[in-house]
Design a protein that fits this description.
This protein has 216 residues and is α+β, with helices and mostly antiparallel strands. It is 48% helix and 14% strand. It has two domains: 74 residues; 134 residues, no CATH class. The chain contains seven helices and seven strands, in the order H-E-H-H-E-E-E-E-E-E-H-H-H-H. Strand 3 and strand 4 form a beta hairpin.
Amino acid sequence: MIEMSDFTNGLDDGFIRFSETPHALEKGRNIQIQSAVLLVAIQLCFVLIPFWPIRILLLLLMIPALALSWRRWMDWRNTPFAVNPAHPLMELLSDKEAKVMIRLQDGRWELAGEFRYRLVEDDLLNGFNLVALNDHYSVFGYFTDEKSHSSSLRRTMALLNQSLALRDAHNGENDDIEDARKRESIDFGLLQREWPDEEDSEDALGPIAKKLKRQE
């Protein structure tokens, strides 16, 4: 488990972890409530059902339920990027430049570049690199040691790229996401990538994603 002091070590002063932004805090509370409801439901079934074979099954079910709830909460809490107070995610209506920092697998925090990012398998480290969607597909850094595109990892990438789009919209920069998508449709034979579907994006930021769509 990553201690929060370790997770934020190296993060520039003034940056706020994504999980501490207003909408993310609300989502985090929802995750906690959903987990509590699941665990309480299992406990109630244990009390109300007198048959021990079923009770034993419920006890066995409690362990993976606890593990799943904890993992889901920690994945959300440790979403590996942060924003400065001027970023639209903070909802402060600042006119200063919005910035995003990304946490790499080795714990380093790096300022995000001007492009969106995709995940590309690293053959040596058996994880994924973060690659910029520019003409050269520049490697930003080793991002995760996960072996596959889990739902949590897809959600993280959707959140990250939407936060970058919000940053660019706030800073008055051209949104080149459509150009990136067009490049994705061309088979260069170099990278293996997949775009998160619209449902992932909508679930990721909710009203913030809708705000961004209205600006397109």
